[in-house]
Amino acid sequence: MSDLKIGVYICNCGTNIAKTVDCEAVIKAMQTLPGVAVAKSYKYMCSNPGQEMIAADIKTLGLNRVVVAACSPRMHEPTFRKALDSAGLNPYFLEMANIREQNSWVHEDGAACTHKAIDLTRGAVKRVAFHEALEKRSVPMSPSVLVLGGGVAGMTAALEIGDANQTVYLVEREDHLGGNVARIDLTAPHLDSARDLLLDRITRVTTHPKIKVLLKSELVEMSGYIGNFKTKIKTAGKELELELEVGALVVCTGYQEFDAKKIRNFGYGSLPDVITSFELETMIRAGKIVTKSGKTPRYVSLIHCVGSRSEEHHPYCSRVCCMTAIKYAHEVKSMIPDAYVSDLYIDMHAFGKGCEDFYKRGSELRTMFLMYKKNQPPVVRVADPKEKFGMLIALSEQLSGEDVEIPADLIVLMVGMEPRADSASVAHIVNISRDKDGWFIESHPKLDPVATTTDGIFIAGACQAPKDIPDSVAQARAASARIMAKIAQGKIWVDAVYAEVDPEYCSGCRMCNELCPYSAIEFDAAEKRSHVISAVCKACGACVAGCPSSAIKGRHFTDKQIFAQIEGVMA
Amino acid sequence: MSFEPKIVGILCNWCSYTGADLAGTSRTKYAPNIRVLRVMCSARVDPTFIFKALSEGADGVLICGCHPGDCHYVEGNYKAMRRFPLLKKMLADLGVEDQRVRLEWVSASEGQRFADVVNEMTEQVRKLGPSKIKPDLLADRRNRPAAAAAEVAHA
Description:
The complex is a heterodimer. By secondary structure, chain A is of the alpha/beta class. Chain A has a five-stranded parallel sheet with strand order 10-7-6-14-25. Chain A has a five-stranded parallel sheet with strand order 16-23-17-18-19. In chain A, strands 2-1-3-4 form a four-stranded parallel sheet, sandwiched between helices. Chain B is built from six helices and four strands. Chain B starts with 6 loop residues before the first strand and ends with a helix.
């Protein structure tokens, strides 16, 4: 250990870290530690000059270990590993200390933050001393892709990959393609026909030589890893499950609409002329907007944020409903020119391209806009039979400050988007996470929006969060581009981190064989020893902790490394 | 000055460490007493890690993994869950109070929950006062450092 030369780099992250952490104090503390050859700080370690500083020090000072105290390793570990690699040092000789997400961003007391930064960085310095050079493994990348969900996002992804001449399996639960877009008439804000938009795509997908469409089918099982996933598809009415080997998956399972029955105020389910936006779409597609009794409504009301932006139901905005409501104002006015349209909203969200203009044109149709308060939804009641209208809507109107009642013959509830009821089981099968609302989580909200925490599994469309058609298409294309880049390389570099059995200590008890969730540990009956199939091992470490003989080493998470890190943070 | 406990956190990479990072990106404030180590899965948590932390002077150890049913490695958290009562029994025999060592489930979206768990645990351990195990173990280590360290490592 006498030849250790550790370089320690403290990132200021602009002021993100330096505002609360005294980086100079961290440098001073690190300089006293054995093996530390250099300790310095820099404004942005992840910038090119920051990375070049590390590479230059490796070369000129002969560093053989590097510690970067900066953001989360989940953010920039790959960046700094590359910096080591570029200077000819094995990338696994890096350790990061998370002094931003888990320190400067979560504590306010400067002294406590600096103390913690010193402890965490010391832990990394102690740990890195025990790091070993590891070689990455490469595995072949299967060029086939599975796309889950045949809505706009799924079809776009399938076409993009199919057009690049790679095999795509498009799996759809329903007996038809198109997803939720197949249920609507026109799209906002351009009032283009959804049917035209879909038909072209459906025709291309179903006739494409590289795309195999599997309707009434579900993904029931997935195993393996990026480049080499093994999947099982169950098709309704078929006994045998189809087994497909694919290199990557795009999950485009979309959304379902909020169940309006959950909000009592509107009387949905008991009042026949209170309908959801999708039910209005059905009427519009059939060419006639009528009440349950077959009359043409004179007063049509659109109520926004049904299930969205609510403390009781979903806290988030569903993004598409405001413009859809304006679209209905256009459609109702064009089908029933003398109708009075009222639009009951909380805030008008018209953020997309062309949307503000569309809102303006909606206002010019003499739509009556009434603002209600968040968490105080309007109340619907049946009108006196003597009246010329069927229902009354009471609300506390925010712009005038008055309590008002308005007449209505037909009330349209702008139901928000929510994760599909099966999103938990889909997430479980493909091994990805969901956020607090149930949407699938992306790898990074800004920098890696279509990848997930599982390599090779991508997400696109409304299964990630509520979004409109243009955003869904953009995500689907982004996911396809990511996959095509991997296919083009032909092989996948997988992490060099896996478990190893030391045959010297293995007693052949086979306890680890049972512990491994991937059946990656084989027993050699002749040798009476177990050994790990490294390509199948995913490095969870369950066998390492479970081995009664301490014969299994979890590479890059060895007992020695973890013990040293504990000593470091506690010193 | 009031007693400030030091707590070692051992978090699984996929759920809890990501959840702790989310607390950061959301700027959710919590007590600065925790020092986090990352492992790939809560199933990697060897009981010796906890003994090691306590012997190094930690006043508490917090282990966090994915919620049951959500493990990135299918069922690693169940393994952690099954091992934990055995560990707690050993700790009780050593005289370590129940609240000093905790196993909690924190998902990747539960930044707030991570902050709440850390705050709550910090408060509990602060009330318990400094860990009583460390003077004994440290004395033991002073007498025969190498042997004691090896004992802890292979316990």
